[in-house]
From TrEMBL, chain A:
The chain crosses the membrane at residues 6-21, 28-53, 73-94. It is found in: Cell membrane. Coiled coil: none annotated. This is Na(+)/H(+) antiporter subunit C. Belongs to the CPA3 antiporters (TC 2.A.63) subunit C family. It is a multi-pass membrane protein. Gene3D superfamilies: 1.10.287.3510. InterPro entries: CPA3_antiporter_subunitC (IPR050601), NUOK/Mnh_C1-like (IPR039428). Keywords: Cell membrane, Membrane, Transmembrane, Transmembrane helix. Its main location: membrane.
Length: 115, 493
């Protein structure tokens, strides 16, 4: 299971890097989304997979059966944050498309005193 | 008052939330924002007195004991930084009244400033590495908003780059936390400091340490990772720039100092030598930038990068003089960067441009501004008895006692370059032929001068009264050098 997860994480990171290297702003945003998904899956995997019982003390369940609850709590926080940042980025991209008239990041270069 | 250390985080949060309700009422916005920062300042002063007498304060939220609950810890080091951050925010709020413009004030400027203070104070206070990430995001979110606030073309363009850099570094941060958790099984900083020495495989820990250095290095703008800073900081108006220059990079520096003294000490031959080399390269890169530009804002912005290098070099030596010097220099630098940006902002407003070549002859019309600027510039370069001197002296001493003595020589030489870069502003803007200036109302000038002069006076006091502050500084350094004090305070039960 860990092997599959590693491959998935690696694939997500690869796709994210590919998308973030492109010129279109919307592809970059999708890339950042994939990047944070990869990071979230990484937390889940690093906490150790396996375990079937919920992390609640009950009779007849040994410690080795529990799911590690901490990575899930961390992912929950990280997902909310990346969701907020992504939505901010989308609004920012739309505003700068209106203002600058382009979504091509190559055309957004230049020194500060150009305009 | 067991929750005292939470007040500097919660008070700005509360007041920012109140401010969200009536964005159009400028008088209320201004007074409540100033009140919020002022109350936070009072809370910090109580906190420092408490920490000084009773030692490190720790709160575990929800009363779950240390390794399991989220811990907030306030030792002298973090309390002093919280104090400087709050003082600077208060001054920035006062400086914003005449400079930021009514339109910005009416669209949630002050709430964003207070949310930024919440994030900064929280990042300084937290004792849990994942919570550090959360507070980083709180302050980054406010900084995205502040940097794009006003929506001018350069601001939008630079915010996209700033946002992208920080999203990538946040993803790296989450990944680094994941690796750390898989190796140690804990995220509480004190617990990490206990568990890490027990782990035999230091190789993987070194990798994680370098990963964290990259993550915090993005925020702190260390050598190869500072590329986003000059552009992003140039875009917003001066009060926001002062706030960023004084606070944002320093949070990254604080995080490096905390992690590299508390728990990433298993392979100092590699990690701390790397840190020292990067610090020296950062200083050199900053000097090149500071000398290359003929723009008052750009020159001071590159001086931020130089200061980051100087502070991190002191930490990398891991001896008493170096660490104490770093703490002193960190506090000095926060204050003096804000003061310099304030003064440069006044100069830029008077000339209507930040280009040095179009300036000249201000000494005749604004002599007070000239002299105050000169004092600040001397303080930045570390001319005794001003505030840059004691910190730099200790850092240099630490370098000579430590393994990288050549670094101290670089710091001494580059101090002259720092002095040259800021004196250039003085020579071009205040000497020479008078140039036509933009008329500035007497009351506006006074409103801008008062916070600047007070802040400069504070830095002068910090330098001249260094003997008076030294017990606090060395108390803070003691905790960094002896992690067991920190560990005992957090894991006491």
């Amino acid at each position: 299971m860990e092997i599959i997860m590693s491959v998935v994480i690696g694939f997500l990171f690869m796709a994210a890097v590919y998308l973030m290297l492109s010129k279109s702003l919307i592809r970059i945003i999708i890339g950042t989304g994939l990047l944070s998904h990869g990071a979230h899956l990484l937390i889940l995997t690093m906490g150790g997979l396996g375990g079937t019982a919920p992390p609640v003390v009950a009779e007849g369940v040994s410690i080795s059966d529990y799911v590690d609850p901490l990575p899930q709590a961390l992912i929950l926080t990280a997902i909310v944050i990346s969701f907020a940042v992504t939505s901010f980025f989308l609004v920012l991209a739309y505003r700068s498309y209106q203002e600058l008239g382009t979504d091509n990041v190559n055309l957004m270069r230049g020194t500060e005193d150009d305009d | 008052m067991i929750n005292l250390l939470l007040f500097p985080v919660l008070i700005p949060l509360l007041f920012a939330a109140i401010l969200l309700f009536f964005p159009k009422n400028i008088r209320m916005q201004r007074s409540i924002a100033a009140l919020g920062a002022g109350l936070a300042l009072i809370a910090v002063l109580f906190l420092i007195a408490k920490v000084k007498t009773d030692g490190i304060q720790a709160v575990t939220l929800g009363s779950w004991d240390a390794p399991f609950g989220i811990t907030m810890v306030s030792d002298l080091f973090s309390a002093l930084l919280v104090l400087s951050a709050t003082v600077i925010t208060l001054f920035v709020i006062f400086y914003s009244f005449p400079t930021i413009g009514v339109e910005r004030e009416q669209s949630f400027y002050y709430p964003a400033v207070l949310f930024l203070l919440t994030g900064v104070n929280g990042a300084f206070t937290t004792g849990d590495i994942f919570n550090l990430f959360v507070f980083f995001e709180v302050l980054l979110m406010s900084s995205y908003m502040l940097i794009v606030h006003g929506g001018q073309k350069p601001q939008l363009r630079e915010t996209i780059k700033y946002l992208l850099v920080n999203i990538i570094s946040s993803a790296l941060f989450v990944s680094a936390v994941a690796f750390l958790y898989s190796v140690t099984g804990t995220l509480n900083m004190a617990d990490l400091a206990v568990k890490i020495p027990q782990i035999e495989a230091t190789g993987i820990l070194t990798v994680i340490a370098v990963l964290f250095l990259i993550v915090f290095g993005f925020k702190a703008a260390i050598f190869p990772l500072y590329f986003w800073l000059p552009g992003a900081y140039y875009a917003p108006p001066i009060p926001i720039l002062a706030l960023f220059g004084a606070l944002l990079t320093k949070v990254g520096v604080y995080a490096i100092m905390r992690t590299y003294t508390l728990f990433f000490t298993m392979n100092t031959d590699f990690t701390h030598e790397l840190l020292a080399i990067i610090a020296i390269l950062t200083i050199l890169a900053g000097c090149i930038g500071a000398l290359a530009y003929f723009d008052v804002k750009k020159i001071i912005i590159y001086n931020i990068i130089i200061a980051v290098g100087v502070i991190l070099f002191g930490v990398s030596q891991l001896n008493e003089a170096g660490v104490n010097g770093s703490i002193f220099y960190l506090i000095h630098d926060m204050l003096i960067k804000a003061a310099l940006f304030f003064l440069v902002g006044i100069v830029a407003v008077i000339f209507g441009t930040s280009n040095l070549r179009q300036m000249g002859g201000l000494m005749k019309t604004y002599p007070v501004l000239g002299w105050v600027y000169l004092i600040t510039a001397f303080g930045l370069a570390g001319i005794p008895p001003l505030s840059g001197f004691p910190g730099k002296l200790l850092i240099v001493q630490g370098g000579f006692e430590g393994p990288q003595f050549w670094g101290s020589i670089v710091i001494l030489v580059t101090s002259l370059l720092v002095l040259l870069s800021v004196i250039r502003i003085f020579v071009y803007a205040f000497w020479g032929e008078p140039v036509e200036t933009v008329p500035l109302k007497k009351s506006t000038y006074r409103q801008m001068m008062i916070p600047s002069v007070l802040l400069v006076a504070l830095t002068v006091f910090l330098g001249v009264g260094a003997e008076f502050f030294m017990p606090l500084i060395s108390g803070a350094g003691e905790v960094l050098l002896n992690p067991s004090i920190y560990i005992d305070a957090v894991l006491k039960e």
